């Protein structure tokens, strides 16, 4: 998502973990749903870009906008079944450009703090336009879609509410992730990413390994 690369955002944290190993590319689009994402995806990841960039992993994080209530927010709402199909179509496109399903990690929508989000909605002149129970239906569909197409999944909706814990601190306004929520995502996502990236070599040698008399010998090798 758009805010993942803000200071202390989960994207920034993952990029920091992967410094000198991978470039972490943010293509989060604020307010978008899975239908719109499916349309623009070929512009974001094409055969040429995928083959030249040696993609280690792709995260797909949709559902918080798709699950908006149709009668309150028809612009962003996507029916549950279509949401599931869109996720699978995204994996199909990635496969068609050489990114296999085992490199894909779905992230479910997080839970919704309805009282806090309702305040935000009222400030914008609308009624509460999302429900936590509905977000849970979309999270479940995301988990099922991952299983059906061989992708991995980080089920935020379930994990953030595990054992009846208070999840409200993970959200800044009831919907979007707070700093604590970003930390939660980066920690749990790193667990899934680790096996995909830990064997990757450092890009360029450690400075102490460079021969000061003949730096080219170490710096110009593959």
In words, what does this structure look like?
The chain contains nine helices and three strands, in the order αααβαβααβααα. The protein is mostly helical. Helix 4 links the parallel strand 1 and strand 2. Helix 4 packs parallel to helix 6. The longest helix has 19 residues. It comes from Oncorhynchus tshawytscha. Pfam families: Lipase_GDSL. Probable lipase. This is Isoamyl acetate-hydrolyzing esterase 1 homolog. One of its GO terms (molecular function) is hydrolase activity, acting on ester bonds.
Structure summary:
With 222 residues, the protein is mainly alpha-helical. It contains 9 helices and 3 strands; from the N terminus they run H-H-H-E-H-E-H-H-E-H-H-H. 34% of the residues are buried.
Characteristic key phrases:
single chain, 222 residues, mainly alpha, 3-stranded parallel sheet, 9 helices, 3 strands
Topology:
Layout: H1 10-17, H2 34-44, H3 47-53, E1 58-61, H4 80-96, E2 104-107, H5 114-123, H6 132-149, E3 152-154, H7 156-159, H8 179-197, H9 215-219
Report the end-to-end length measured between terminal Cα atoms.
Answer: 34 Å
Anisotropy-based shape: globular
Poorly predicted tracts of residues: none
Range of strand content: under 5%
> What is the C-alpha radius of gyration, as a whole number of Å?
19 Å
Number of strands: 3
Classify the secondary structure makeup into a structural class: mainly alpha
Average pLDDT across residues? 94
Protein name: Isoamyl acetate-hydrolyzing esterase 1 homolog
GO molecular function, one term: hydrolase activity, acting on ester bonds
InterPro entries: GDSL, Iah1-like, SGNH_hydro_sf
Organism: Oncorhynchus tshawytscha (Chinook salmon)
């Amino acid at each position: 998502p758009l805010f993942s690369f803000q200071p202390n955002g989960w994207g920034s944290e993952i990029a920091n973990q992967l410094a000198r190993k991978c470039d972490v590319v943010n293509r989060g689009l604020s307010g978008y749903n899975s239908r719109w994402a499916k349309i623009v995806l070929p512009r974001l990841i094409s055969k040429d870009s995928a083959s030249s960039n040696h993609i280690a992993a792709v995260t797909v994080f949709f559902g918080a906008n798709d699950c908006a209530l149709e009668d309150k927010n028809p612009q962003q709402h996507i029916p549950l079944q279509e949401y599931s199909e869109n996720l699978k179509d995204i994996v199909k496109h990635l496969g068609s450009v050489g990114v296999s399903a085992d490199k894909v990690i779905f992230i479910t929508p997080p839970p919704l703090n309805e009282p806090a989000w309702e305040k935000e909605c009222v400030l914008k002149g609308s009624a509460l336009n999302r429900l936590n129970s509905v977000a849970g239906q979309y999270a479940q569909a995301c988990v099922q879609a991952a299983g059906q197409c061989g992708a991995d999944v980080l089920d935020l909706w379930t994990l953030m509410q595990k054992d009846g814990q208070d999840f409200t601190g993970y959200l800044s306004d009831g919907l979007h992730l707070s700093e604590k929520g970003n930390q939660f995502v980066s920690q749990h996502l790193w667990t899934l990413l680790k096996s995909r990236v830990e064997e990757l070599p450092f890009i360029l040698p450690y400075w102490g390994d460079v021969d000061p008399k003949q730096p080219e010998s170490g710096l110009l090798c593959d």
